[in-house]
Specification:
The complex is a heterodimer of chains A (118) and B (112). By secondary structure, chain A is mainly β. Helix content of chain A is 0%, strand content 47%. Chain A is built from no helices and eleven strands. In chain A, strands 2, 4, 5, 6, 9, 10 and 11 form a seven-stranded mixed β-sheet that branches. In chain A, strands 1-3-8-7 form a four-stranded antiparallel β-sheet, with no helix packed on it. Chain A is globular, with a radius of gyration of 14 Å. The mean pLDDT of chain A is 92. In chain B, 0% of the residues lie in helices and 57% in strands. Classes of the chains: A mainly beta (118), B mainly beta (112).
Chain lengths: 118, 112
């Protein structure tokens, strides 16, 4: 079974440009999460999808970030326009989504996208 | 305020030693606690998940415990090996939505 995949693995862009990150969760997983780790800080939650719906987007830094999950399958995270402080590693994770909710579910992480904004 | 704290930040031990990594959290309303491993330049690999009703989980040489009353979790690694060298992260989920709050990690080096 394929794990969570993310594309691209690395991205270097200039301030003001747009970047779109993609995440393909494990097939059949309803829950999809985005997290981010900026230099020297802990990994922080950005948002959570249940299928195609945004369940919690409390961690999104500002309106320059837009996440979508078309048809409840893959997800994209767009940063427009990118700023220097957006540099970091963006992780995607997925979990199955049992009928009892997310309680006690293991989240499976992708390898991350390393974003550098110059 | 750091909600999840991991001590020490870095640890170096000789091969074969047993070791304990610590994780403390400020909010005792916890649903589950997950330990991850991250190798340099790689993603996170889930090691163990402890549900709130459990006190510990074991997988091979790893044992994780959870004490909600004291707000602490430990990851015990028995008979450490150089291949155990990595950063270990703990994360708690207190919202029942899967939103994980991470510590900053402990970077472990096991010397041959």
């Amino acid at each position: 079974e394929a794990g969570v995949t993310q594309f691209p693995s690395h991205s270097v862009i200039e301030k003001g440009q747009t970047v779109t990150l993609r995440c393909d969760p494990i097939s059949g997983h309803d829950n999809l999460y985005w997290y981010r780790r900026v230099m020297g800080k802990e990994i922080k939650f950005l948002l959570h999808f249940v299928k195609e719906s945004k369940q919690d987007e409390s961690g999104m830094p500002n309106n320059r970030f837009l996440a979508e999950r078309t048809g409840g399958t893959y997800s994209t995270l767009k940063v427009q326009p990118a700023e220097l402080e957006d540099s970091g590693v963006y992780f995607c994770a997925s979990s199955q989504g049992r009928s009892s909710g997310t309680l006690g579910e293991t989240q499976y992480f992708g390898p991350g996208t390393r974003l550098l904004v110059l | 305020k750091q909600e999840v704290t991991q001590i020490p930040a870095a640890l170096s031990v000789p091969e074969g030693e047993n070791l304990v990594l610590n994780c403390s959290f400020t909010d005792s309303a916890i649903y589950n606690l997950q330990w991850f491993r991250q190798d340099p330049g790689k993603g996170l690999t889930s090691l163990l998940l402890i549900q709130s009703s459990q006190r510990e989980q074991t997988s091979g040489r790893l044992n994780a415990s959870l004490d909600k009353s004291s707000g602490r979790s430990t990851l015990y690694i028995a008979a450490s090996q150089p291949g155990d060298s990595a950063t270990y992260l703990c994360a708690r989920d207190s919202s029942n939505t899967g939103k994980l709050i991470f510590g900053q990690g402990t970077t472990l080096q096991v010397k041959p």
